[in-house]
């Protein structure tokens, strides 16, 4: 165990991972306003949308419209999710300069979700990475189901390590390790992170926890203690879990920032503005915020 | 930092600390059923009720009736809160064999709540401890506002240590350190615990976190890493916070047990039964459970 990092970069995934799992579909203009508001909070990375087929993610069918309309600020990166070359082209057409690719670490999850093995799914984003390299576009990689899978249950650590290593070798500057179904606990999160960090530099790793079982912040803490310095989260704790009804989604950015700043770990984020943005968003979605820090502020 | 303990004792405080802060007042028979159900989950300590004046805690005005009716099981302790000798006598009259006394670590909180200084509040429970010693009654001590106070803000560590040390010296077998307003973060929780543990043996300490800002499980984790092996929690995460509207109350026992068991730390608790009891309780209270583990199980 090492000392926690002196500063942490928050990757705000609410506009993509959060909204794609919300029942309520909000208008493109509201999404644009959300991202523009987030750009004023001190965040340096805001995942803006997804160019996955609208057939699969109707919530983000307006990806091109949203991305074209946001007021991009200097010093902030706005990655977008792309499933394949076609998605990459759509993203590039509206000026995206950072993209994200993804694969589950679970064979069963990949087969069920994209009808491919882990190896096939990695092969599929190969062309995206090649084109991105040629275009000078940065690529982030998501590994999902790193602590468990709704179909196969346990996911071997070796599979998580293999996917992360291949993403890194293929040119992803950062690999986000995601507990997609929010099933992990701190000891397992720590062990998973350390197993990956034995093959991919810690500085190239991020952690991504869903709060399905209330474990997300404790898992973040365990990983901070091992030296991870990038944390994915979603303002207002948006999202849900298709595998657990009534479950909460991504860990709330407000609660992560509150913890980090309380521990003396700098985030560069204005927590009051973030809370305000989250409360505004929950109004747009017509539901209570999932951020406890935001609730306590009211 | 040491290794987490191999096993943890959960002190279930829902029937007292939880219910005393719920808006809905449930009938005595329901409280009795709650405690009897909890007695079947593997818990070894269940705080049953409070003999504080009904004027201050109308939710638990039926303390004597409830305590007399529960089916006490061998091997389980059922402490009750007592504010003074009069409360102690009422508790003893119905057969309580363990009691709990309390004091805030904050001067301002004590003055506002019980119109006494810290020293006066400690003097007040002196007679209770003397009588308990003579009667062979075990006494638990609660120190509240250990990480912050709604009136004075910061609470000096020295005050927390002083109250805990005096409770221990006066004969409390265990001191529960409570973040009453749920304002703390892991680094501060850790530092507070270590400061107290420098003067009171770690084996005599428990931690008690409210989840007002979502930090409770992370705080528990940080304290486990320092060797604490007793954790207070409330089934279904009952309770609230009079100082933050809409805030959640005690950390949910289900979520704590899920984390501990997931880390290989034995609790002796049947999580499924605990979840079932919490869901039943939330029905009685007419509100959604605050346990995310319980929500994910539905």
UniProtKB/TrEMBL annotation, chains A, B:
Listed Gene3D superfamilies: Aldolase class I
Residues covered by the Pyruvate carboxyltransferase domain: 8-275
Cited Pfam families: HMGL-like
InterPro entries: Aldolase_TIM, HMGL, PYR_CT
A GO molecular function held by the record: hydroxymethylglutaryl-CoA lyase activity
Pathway(s) per entry: Metabolic intermediate metabolism; (S)-3-hydroxy-3-methylglutaryl-CoA degradation; acetoacetate from (S)-3-hydroxy-3-methylglutaryl-CoA: step 1/1
Keywords for the protein's UniProt record, in alphabetical order: Lyase, Metal-binding
The protein's Enzyme Commission number: 4.1.3.4
Top-level class of the enzyme under EC nomenclature: lyase
GO biological process: ketone body biosynthetic process; L-leucine catabolic process
Superkingdom of the source species: Bacteria
Family: Belongs to the HMG-CoA lyase family.
Protein name as catalogued: hydroxymethylglutaryl-CoA lyase
Natural source organism: Dokdonella immobilis
Phylogenetic placement of the source organism: Bacteria, Pseudomonadati, Pseudomonadota, Gammaproteobacteria, Lysobacterales
